[in-house]
């Protein structure tokens, strides 16, 4: 029958980047079968010592996020909507309706947030969370 292909996939399991997608690349499976013994029970992996998880350090909030944080409760109180997406849409429209002077307050708060973040976590990069 027909095979559904993702729009970003090229023929023969290649992604548009030219890198084979692991879920689509044909796999011979021979190597796995050579080491497989029917009588052998799978051995549980040796338990590793629990690694202390590094605390996730979030990025400092930008001006719009600070605005949303401040105004979300007000919008929820004014509207009967409870869906987060609808509330975000209203907040976005209100943000764009603000004058540059009104937005400047939040840009200044965001600048202070970034400054504080840099002092608290020097050398931090958003890549640290990935």
UniProtKB/TrEMBL annotation:
Region listing for Disordered, in residue ranges: 26-55
Signal peptide: none
Keywords (A to Z) from UniProt: Activator, DNA-binding, Nucleus, Transcription, Transcription regulation, Wnt signaling pathway
Gene Ontology biological-process entries: canonical Wnt signaling pathway
Regions recorded as binding DNA: 57-125
Gene3D superfamilies, sorted: High mobility group box domain
InterPro entries reported for this sequence: HMG_box_dom (IPR009071), HMG_box_dom_sf (IPR036910), TCF/LEF (IPR024940)
Highest taxon, organism lineage: Eukaryota
Location of this chain's protein in the cell: Nucleus
Gene Ontology molecular functions: DNA-binding transcription factor activity, RNA polymerase II-specific; RNA polymerase II cis-regulatory region sequence-specific DNA binding
A single Gene Ontology CC term: beta-catenin-TCF complex
HMG box domain mapped to chain residues: 57-125
Chief localization: nucleus
Biased composition, class Basic and acidic residues, residue ranges: 29-54
UniProt record similarity statement: Belongs to the TCF/LEF family.
Identification of the protein by name: TCF7 factor
Native organism taxonomy: Eukaryota, Metazoa, Chordata, Craniata, Vertebrata
